[in-house]
TrEMBL record:
Keywords: Ligase. The lineage of its organism: Bacteria, Bacillati, Actinomycetota, Actinomycetes, Pseudonocardiales. It comes from the Bacteria. Belongs to the ATP-dependent AMP-binding enzyme family. One of its GO terms (molecular function) is acid-thiol ligase activity. It holds the Pfam family AMP-binding_C. This is AMP-binding protein. Residues 32-413 form the AMP-dependent synthetase/ligase domain. It comes from Amycolatopsis iheyensis. The keyword Ligase applies.
Length: 548
């Protein structure tokens, strides 16, 4: 069944949310132009002790656009942006758009092979990266790229917080130009590029089932729709401070933090990259109203020795996205801070969120599985649950989640085969298994490819993980299928312990055995200090499967 089939329950949906549907979407370059004209002296970015106004960001990004254009970068050319959460990320992003370009956000943790694929596949003409990255390997990897700009994470701020910046030094970068020197390029204001909504804004690389990264083509309309949607959906007042908990090179940080901050003419607080102690200090200093990050980030914050209720006293809304949110974590966080973590769901191909728990509501928990809902489809979005033959399934029955809406990308860069497979007719087949209840709440069971087949019985790792998270000794949990001579596959759990706790494997097996069907509980539990994660905080089950 689809979202529209659930409409009779709308009487229970907060009508103020429905009334807050965004107006006709605009592009983020247009939205930034409006903010820079309307509130030029308002702080656009805070970064440790640095503050940059909308006027300053506008002028610096104008200079980058002039430099790029003077060096042959033209409309439709691609610029790779390989930076952490620093002001220069925003300056380079806007500068590339002002020059008419397409931005390719790249994870700075990529190494030579991964970066080479992205640069080659996207046909990148310009690159912006850190001085350290350039000197370490990017100079060689990007030697055929004509325009190279580098920058230091030490710029603007003066604290050089050794917890995250202690190993950073200012370096010379032979063969590249310093970004802020380029931003000082004199000249007239660049002409507005006047993007159409269906013009590509980003090529965001994501791994498919084959593991080969492919570039989702997020359009300006995709980004503008979701950035404006969050601003209205959340009810955050204009000028609010949003904290960049998710990395900006990830679609969540790009849209839900940076895009939404621009949309409400607010302030984006940045702290380079995630360090729990640094983030908690930044919360006290900058007093943000909103942030979004993976559940693992909230777990890490709660586990930090300096964690206190006061760190979160300024927040109006906290969202989780990018990784499964266990109900036990929601309740533990509420007990410690008084704040409820709102769930959200999205993919690179949906330009971040497409199903979200409204800020005025709490997500129901499915009584059968104990799974917390990921939310309700956002305005103008249709969610369907499909069976193996593509038929729509009844409420309550699990199948593949399919999404249609203005935030769904049109395809993958130079990959018509992948586009046809995952986006037939513009409908995104997510690869996630889930179901919808009669009121329209959507639940994710797990990734289609992560299902464990134990003696013919289906076991979804997330259900087992949710039970593990209810044990007080468990901080993080991940469940995978491992080879078993008798059952074909059997269930194995990996956990990291809560601070000061002793996570005993036998005790955890018994805990799950009491709470799950016989074929579901893990036969073995392995304790690790930390579980492997992506930079966006998602636990890497594939690495754990490889351990066996």
């Amino acid at each position: 069944m689809s979202w529209y089939d659930a409409k009779p329950w709308l009487a229970s949906y907060d009508e103020s949310v429905r009334a807050a549907e965004p107006a006709k979407p605009t592009t983020l370059p247009e939205t930034f132009r409006r903010a820079a004209d309307h509130v030029p002296d308002r702080t656009a970015i805070v970064y440790f002790d640095a503050r940059l106004s909308y006027r300053e960001v506008d002028e610096l990004s104008d200079g980058v656009a002039r430099y790029l254009s003077a060096h042959g970068f033209a409309r439709g050319d691609r610029l790779a942006l390989v930076l952490q959460n620093i002001p220069q990320f925003v300056i380079a992003l806007l500068g590339a758009w002002k020059a008419g370009g397409i931005v390719v956000p790249v994870n700075p943790m990529y190494r030579d092979r991964e970066l080479t694929h992205v640069l080659t596949d996207a046909g990148v003409k310009a690159i912006v990266c850190s001085q350290r990255g350039w000197n370490a390997f990017i100079a060689e990897t990007a030697k055929d790229i004509g325009i190279a700009l580098t920058t230091s994470e030490l710029e603007f701020q003066t604290r050089d917080d050794e917890r995250v910046l202690g190993k950073v030094i200012r370096e010379e970068t032979p063969g590249a130009t310093e970004l802020l020197e380029a931003a000082a390029t004199p000249g007239p204001k660049p002409p507005e590029p006047a993007f159409a909504l269906d013009d590509v804004a980003l090529i965001s690389y994501t791994s498919g089932t084959s593991g080969t990264p492919k570039g989702a083509t997020n359009t300006h309309g995709n980004l503008g729709t979701n950035a404006a949607g969050l601003g209205s959906f959340s009810g955050l007042p204009a000028g609010s401070t949003l904290f960049g908990l998710a990395p900006l090179f990830h679609i969540t940080g790009m849209v839900c933090e940076l895009g939404s901050a621009i949309d409400i003419e607010g302030t984006l607080a940045l702290a380079y990259r995630f360090d729990a102690g640094v983030v908690l200090d930044a919360f006290l200093e900058h007093r943000p109203s909103y942030t979004v990050g993976p559940s693992t980030a909230y777990m890490a914050l709660m586990a930090h020795p300096s964690f206190s209720r006061d760190h979160f006293s300024s927040f109006a809304l906290l969202y989780s996205g990018g990784a499964a949110l266990p109900p036990a974590v929601v309740e533990a966080f509420r007990a410690k801070t008084g704040h409820y973590i709102h769930n959200g769901y999205g993919l690179t191909e949906t330009s971040a969120g497409c199903v979200v728990v409204p800020g005025t509501l709490e997500a129901p928990i499915d009584p059968a599985s104990g799974t917390i809902s990921i939310g309700l489809p956002v305005p103008d979005t249709i969610v369907r649950i499909l069976g193996e033959d593509g038929e729509e399934l009844p409420f309550g029955q699990a199948g593949e989640i399919a999404v249609e809406g203005p935030m769904v990308v049109s395809g993958y860069w130079n990959r018509p085969d992948a586009t046809a497979e995952s986006l037939p007719g513009g409908r995104l087949l997510t690869g996630d298994i889930g179901f919808m209840d009669e009121r329209g709440w959507v639940y994710v069971v797990d990734r289609k490819k992560d299902m464990i087949n134990a003696s013919g019985f289906k076991v979804w790792p997330r259900e087992v993980e949710d039970v593990l998270y209810t044990h007080p000794a468990v901080r993080e949990a991940a469940v995978v299928g491992v080879a078993d001579e008798y059952r074909g596959e059997t269930v194995k759990a990996y956990v990291s312990p809560a601070p000061g706790a002793n996570a005993d494997p036998a005790e955890l097996v018994a805990w799950c055995k009491e709470r799950l069907a016989a074929y579901k509980y893990p036969r073995t539990v392995e304790v690790l200090d930390e579980l492997p994660k992506t930079t966006s905080g998602k636990i890497l089950r594939r690495e754990l499967r490889a351990r066996g």
